[in-house]
Specification:
mainly beta; 2 domains; 46% strand; six-stranded mixed sheet; Elongation Factor Tu (Ef-tu), domain 3; six-stranded antiparallel barrel; 164 residues
């Protein structure tokens, strides 16, 4: 599970600038262990601190700017088993992407392909037989999420999709 994305190096001592992708900042506390990039090599967090809306993180084994410069754009991951429990009716992105989306009446809208993060609420990008639909992740629209069945049921509000 991705908890952060490396946006660049900071200074000369091997710190990285990280965009936090989790609601649990304790993931970056000293002593935490993170996997870096697709190669998934594990590193311990030595130190972290907020900096201009991001985090500056120092990882074990990365002692200078040259050691971290090539990490730009890579993600920081945790094991799925280490995920924090969420409140009822809250889901992790990887639980939702891939769900079949249908209306409450059973009309197939398609597959949830991606989640767009906006300021107000998330928007689910659904690709289906009639094209792409942008579904706001709000209680009035998303009526049911059944992870076991792999289905999300939605109530389409007037004007929400423009299919003819």
């Amino acid at each position: 599970m991705a908890v952060g994305r490396i946006v660049g190096a900071h200074g000369i001592r091997g710190e990285i600038k990280v965009k936090q992708l989790t609601d649990f900042p304790e993931r970056f506390a000293p002593g935490s262990r993170l996997y870096v990039g697709e190669e998934a090599f594990q590193r311990e967090v030595i130190a972290s601190r907020p900096h201009r809306g991001m985090l500056l993180v120092k990882l074990s084994g990365l002692s200078d700017r040259n050691a971290v410069e090539h990490l730009r754009g890579k993600y920081l991951f945790i094991d799925r088993e280490e995920a924090m429990e969420l409140e009822e009716d809250a889901y992790y992105e990887d639980e939702l992407v891939g769900l079949t989306v249908e209306t409450m009446e059973g009309e197939l809208l398609g597959e949830l392909m991606e989640i767009m993060w906006t300021g107000a609420n998330e928007v689910y990008i659904v690709q289906g037989p009639r094209g792409e639909a942008l579904i706001p992740a709000i209680a009035q629209v998303v009526q049911e999420v059944d992870l076991e069945a792999g289905v999300m049921r939605v109530k389409l509000l007037p004007g929400l999709v423009d299919w003819e």
